């Protein structure tokens, strides 16, 4: 059971844009990592774009399960995990991250923000904290 990506996005008027993201692509071949990360960024934006305000959904994309939560204020979170990762845990994580993000980052920064301009550093910590450690066999 693995988490691969945790993203915070803003579902604005024209389109969705990424505010902050964390990735764990360490299980992929070194040469595949950047394209896997691009795929996850693109998929997160697409799923958030296609989800209605105030909705939660889980979408299967290739061998991944993408869990999306779009709040009524336009703030959205996406977790990309493998098929075995518990859905309930993903939505608990999204709730926690979006609540904390909205307290720490001014709502005025959301429409124009980008990963370079938004200062919110907790995503990497959450990604590793919620990673399920499986014993080596």
Automatic annotation (TrEMBL):
Domain Longin: 8-127
GO CC aspect terms: Golgi apparatus
Membrane topology: Lipid-anchor
Molecular function (Gene Ontology), one example: SNAP receptor activity
SUPFAM superfamilies in alphabetical order: SNARE-like
Pfam families recorded: Longin (PF13774)
CDD domains per UniProt: Longin
One GO process term, biological-process aspect: protein transport
Compartment list: Endomembrane system
Keyword annotations from UniProtKB, A to Z: Lipoprotein, Membrane, Methylation, Palmitate, Prenylation, Protein transport, Transport
Family affiliation: Belongs to the synaptobrevin family.
Record protein name field: YKT6B protein
Originating species: Tachuris rubrigastra
Gene that specifies this protein: Ykt6b
